[in-house]
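Worked example (supplementary).
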Amino acid sequence: MATITVEVNGQKRVAEIDPRTLLVDFLREHLQLTGTHVGCDTSQCGACTVHVDGKSVKSCTMLAVEADGAAVTTIEGLAKGGELHPMQAAFHACHGLQCGFCTPGMVMSAVDLVHQNPNPTEAEVRHGLEGNLCRCTGYQNIVQAVLQGAETMRGGAR
Amino acid sequence: MSSHGMGVAVARKEDRRFLTGKGRYTDDIVLPGQTYAVFVRSPYAHARLRAIDTTAAAASPGVLAVLTGKDVADDGLGGIPTGWQIHNKDGSPMAEPPHPALAQGKVRHVGDPVVMVVADSKVHAREAAALVEIDYEPLPAVAHLPVAAAPGAPQVWDEAPGNVCFDWHVGDKAATDAAFAQAARVVSIDLANNRIAPNAIEPRAANGHFDATGDQFTLYTTSQNPHLTRLLLGAFSLKVPEHRLRVVAPDVGGGFGSKIFHYAEELLVLWASRRVGHPVKWTSDRSEAFLSDAHGRDHVSHAELALDAEDKFLALRVNTLANLGAYLSTFAPAVPTYLHAILLSGPYVIPAIYVEVKGMFTHTVAVDAVRGAGRPEATYLLERLVDKAAREGGTDPIGIRRKNFIQPHQFPYQTPVALCYDTGDYEPTLDMALAAIDYPNLAARKAEAKSRGKLRGFGISTYIEACGIAPSAVVGSLGARAGLYEAATVRVHPTGSVTVFTGTHSHGQGHETTFAQLINDRLGVAIDNVDIVHGDTDRIPFGMGTYGSRSAAVGGSAIVKALDKIIDKGKKIAAHLLEADVSDIEFSDGKFRVVGTDREKGFGDIAFAAYVPHNYPIETVEPGLEEGAFYDPKNFTFPAGTHCVEVEIDPETGVVQVVDVAIADDVGVIINPMIVDGQAHGGLAQGIGQALLEECLYDENGQLLAGNYMNYCMPRAEDFPRFKVGNHVTACTHNPLGIKGVGEVGAIGVPPAVINAVLDALAPLGVTHIDMPATPEKVWRAIQAAQGGAA
Amino acid sequence: MNPFTFHRPTTLADAINQMKGGNGEVKLLGGGQSLLPVMKLDLAMPSALISLSGIPGLDEIRAEGGRVTIGGCATHAAVAASSAVRGAIPALAQLAGAIGDTQVRNRGTIGGSLAHADPSADYPAAALALGATIVTDRRRIAIDDYFTGLFSTALEADEILTAVEFPIPDRAGYAKFAHRASKYAVVGVFVAKSAGGVRVAVTGAGPVVFRATAIEEALAANFSADAVPAGTVASDDLQSDTEASAEYRAHLVTVMARRAVQAAT
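After joint prediction of all chains, the assembly is encoded as:
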């Protein structure tokens, strides 16, 4: 067993875990943060995407012990004070989600994408989402949402 | 029109929980005392089970049970049933071999479950599963069509000689033969429709709980139709009466057909829970999903079209082999027959049609409905054939379609293959799609692409489909073992807010919004005061679920019927309060009004009076305001439209890029255009995925070669251009909303448009045929072969 | 996944000691983007994992003295974004920026990639074509001696790859035909022209990254896409799978080599 201290969504969490524990299992099973999903077993689908020290990672392909000392943000930590993050609001406004299963990972990737490239073109958004799969939307409204979310984020809303 | 009524692009009510990580999917549910199941699955496509040794597994830490097919048999569990019985040409019923929940005697596909391990944690269950020892005697296997039909092919079932499940036909053979004899020319085609995997991003999961004190079973499952699952569990597999069974389908992360069916794991977690005295949860991982979720398509067909000298279609003859896999899944026999063959008239007048379909067993995962289910196969076949007819005849692929369209004055139109189309108008969608893709300037775009070394091609598909499934008497006469009506209950609360209980299920379709819009439209109640409840057999009286683009057309119609009853009752209450005759009361904009006066009562006043019946027609009207309704559709609905695609091909590598997609659909009356467009987008992505990227490829020994996301190519955002989506509405004539359905049109219409575009691009090089998926290597080889190259 | 003990030393010396002192199969963990997927499938079952993520300085990137030196723990994202790499060897930055996807690039490391030596990975092509030197805790290994076969290298079991040194070429370019599903290279060709000549390395096509000597010779005479000869790599030695046959891969080597030359800067 290993003891880890991780700041999750701004809250310090200390836990004793089996070193085999994947970050996603730590979040879902130890912290009951079930918004982070698992859609594949080969690091392709991106449903498990969270931010570790501000960067998007696939939490199914990172050991929780590797997050010791890090700050992790999950979809549950994105909205502040009950107000949706501009990217969440854009997904809502643009119908960028259907079943909602890929959505948390998609939103987390989108936020990181805009942090890296605040004013992306449509082609850059499509390319930038290569690590996330969606089966419902055909991506069209997701792409639209990311463009709109980027615009709001540029406006200094957050 | 109210701001949240019919026809308005209302942002979805259900979004917030999904966007904030508060969705509640099956795997998110952890019950007190939760235990976990892992399945040991066959690595062989066909093998005899010589011995199973569970000793070491049973002694492994945390293990509660290690269960085999013998335990399933000893406990008297029923098999997994199929819901449709097809009859052969000679009238005899199809072969219907058993489907035990855990393999007994033999395994028949890679992934066939053999042993179930239940332990106190997922890790312990996995560790124990690795200790199960199974002695297999490998046997010859067959995975592919048409090999399965060849003499001497390995046999999947003793009770299905030649691997034939059914040998079925529809249409008039003599009339078709006669028409062919008169033809000026005949065009023929041989093609395969590739096997695909549904790939909802949420893998299947099931959590079964047996409560011994109440003798009650509860199943949380990733289902598109919890009542159907309960029906099949109750009557066939678990064999427990429905009142002791609760099936909950909470938030479900996409279905695309794969979550319609009753799967062995649903039965097994309930059964195991009774045995171990704890709730038992199983969650599939993606690789397991490829080996256990029903696949889709997998047809091989030969088709011939007879034309007269003016290119009018005279007759169509089709012979299809359909791969059903090793076991019959819930709807499997219906897909290549009643969802495929009877669609083969398309949007065209074809005076004579004859179709033969053989359903074949193979040592592969079951094949059943995947988004479109049979209709994509029909559309692909017909639209490839029509394009070939135009190309071979040196005529315009658009003109030949226009010339053969069923004309508006011909509706209702009886096809030679059972269906009667109630309404349609095909040319406007054709014109809209061609305009959207700027068809007149195609030549300039081709020339510009050529200057960049790319081959540009244009492809078209004009399709029709049948959905809004389905009139119960009709499908019953065709072999369905269930009715396909829908149910709804509308509960008006004393303060005028509304809860709707619908038997349909949303796994992305947005029912919580569209049905609220319907209530808003009919009752004038704000959508925030409407709750839509779905997915729980204890809360919803009954239902058949969501598939076959049926939720709005059938489920919505059931809601309308219930609303009509609410309004009728409200009128009686209003008549009493307004001291008028009930025949003089009208209801509009949320007000009951005495016709021709300003005397009125709001909907909320009537609801309140119904629950506080102080001044009330109590002698003739019961208190309360809640009504239920069942709606059985009178016919299928028939969405239709035109899909146009342009591709660019890199001739050096064979890579095909879809560069433009313009579609125009007639899906009937639209409740929420934003959601309807979203459904079209998703269907297009799956259809383009099938055409270019996706294939569940087996080798000849039945090993699945594309069994995870490292080798099964799922479409990504950059695989697509921005889709141009248009609608032209003709209202369905036989349901109260005029709705046809949109869930499947993209997956149905677009694949042949993509391949027709690929062939158009490659035509200058002499390529005349390619099968889906048009992968880079396949395209490159086609070019090499046409150019006389070594490849 | 089988049980393992986990160590996260904070100095290289500690890491070396833990590697030497480990019982059973001890594995180094970089970003885990290659190792964890195979561990999840039980294709690797180490008894101990030693993470390099706690050791400061192993992710340093610098360009000086005619070469670019990249610490073994530098992520693909860091290499792609590095102004030092973009200035000195733009093709290397471009290659790093096209590995996997954003999330993979944020975790995966150059050291992990080169130690894992996946035959379809991108970095081996750059390392071989640029004539890189692998720097370890105990020695320097010339790249020509480094790749020894499928998933195997000259690294000893307890040896730690600490950095990679890339000589700065006159021009270099990389072109990749990516597997549509996995994004790994079906065929990736890296061309590099420097005073010492032209080196062309091919990844994805064979069981191990290799140099295409016939193409090198042709490009040495005339460094242009048109000079790349067709059919110089025999399909006999190439991989065949559901994505691409050996014959198609052989064809793609020619096409990607031409495109790499076109892209070379």
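Two points are worth noting when inspecting this output. Chain C has a mean pLDDT of 96. The radius of gyration of chain C is 18 Å.
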